[in-house]
Amino acid sequence: MKAPEQFDPSKTSSKTVTPAPNNSKLAKSPAIPVGTPTIKQTHKHTEQAARKPFEGRFLLPKYWGIWLLLAMILPMIYLPLRWQFWLGRKLGITLYKLASSRRRDTLTNLRLAFPEKPEVERELMAKQVFVNQGIGVFETLCTWFRPNIFTRTVSISGLQHVINAQNDGRAVILLGAHYTMLDLGGMLCTQFFPMDCMYRPQNNAFLDWLVYNGRNAIFGKQISSRDMRSLVSAIKDGHVIWYSPDQDYGLKQGVMAPFFGVPAATITAPRRLAKLGDKAHPPAVMALHTYRQTPDSLPSGKRPHYHLTITPQLDNYPSHDEVADATRVNEILEGLIRIDPTQWMWFHRRFKNGPNGRTDIYK
Fold it and tell me: Where is the composition biased (Polar residues) (predicted)?
């Protein structure tokens, strides 16, 4: 089967006249030709929601740990990306050694998902998951605070699926997953089309404020999973909505369906979302994969490259069988994750619930 055609925004037509960017530092970079629009200049959005206001309670001692981490890490995002990748690798290796509970959960998940692999290979995969997450910390912070550093680093396959659905006046439910470059993936998507996202509020109020405002410049709307009115409104308005159904939220709103060959509690929200909106033009449901193609050891003078893949829409979805629908979604996400399993967050307890409630596999 012929691979989908890739679209790379860095390859502009000779007939296209692009405005010179305002960033004088960008023009001096040997990797980016003069006149290349920046990420912020080419960002697509329908609207921008108001930022959450800062609250005085965020200065209380219980939040000082987060402030300390920010004070340590934020200055580092102004280093060259090559150095940030190196620091991210060191951070990931350190976390692998110190975060024993997360390391154990990761190894348990990999043992369940890849029983055919020898233990030593699964351990190497687990270490790489932490390395990719360490790099992902820097990728996410750069996405929030200096996105132009990722100018001219992305290509995409399957963009036509979103365009065709939008041209038909349909909303798009874009099924993502918790990849280690999560927020960067969202920003790269908005180089091609505006997008809203669904999110689950953080339990820590200061962290929730930080994440929400960090994502504010990426997404048009950030819709809480509890805010059905805003969700229905976005679907009726024909928006593209990013939703990640790859975590275990129990069986109150989910069913058991295989994921990497393991029975897993799988949320059925995607099929409910697909029923919302205009019945004559129902939302198109498709999946998104975000992938860093560059090795984690970025060579000197080289820029990272990221690739986005959008699958064709799911035909005959939803069906009358919610288990079959959940299985279908899991199969699609699994196939995308297998492109590079170490770029998915295996440290989440994906298999913590079984048909009879909580399991003890993580003890």
Answer: 9-26
Does residue 340 fall inside a structural domain? yes
Whether residue 223 lies inside any domain: the answer is yes
Whole-angstrom distance, CA of residue 261 vs CA of residue 269: 21
pTM of structure: 0.88
Rounded to the nearest 10 degrees, the angle between the axes of helix 119-145 and helix 64-73 is: 90
Classify residue 363: in a domain, yes or no: no
The pLDDT tens digits for 154-210 are 999 999 999 999 999 999 999 999 999 989 999 999 999 999 999 989 999 999 999
Each residue of 288-325: pLDDT tens digit? Answer: 999 999 888 888 878 899 999 999 999 999 999 999 99
Please give the Cα distance from 22 to 20 (Å, whole number): 7
**Are 285 and 274 spatial neighbours (Cβ–Cβ below 8 Å)?**
yes
d(C-alpha 173, C-alpha 232), whole Å: 12
Domain count, the chain: 1
Please provide residue 138's backbone torsions phi and psi, each rounded to the nearest 5 degrees.
Answer: -70, -40
Q: Domain residues for 119?
A: 61-358
Q: Residue 131 is encoded by which pair of tokens?
A: 């390395």
Does residue 45 lie in a domain region?
Answer: no
| pLDDT for the residue numbered 31 | 55
**Beta-strand pair 306-310/284-292:** antiparallel
Regions of the chain with pLDDT less than 50: 1-30
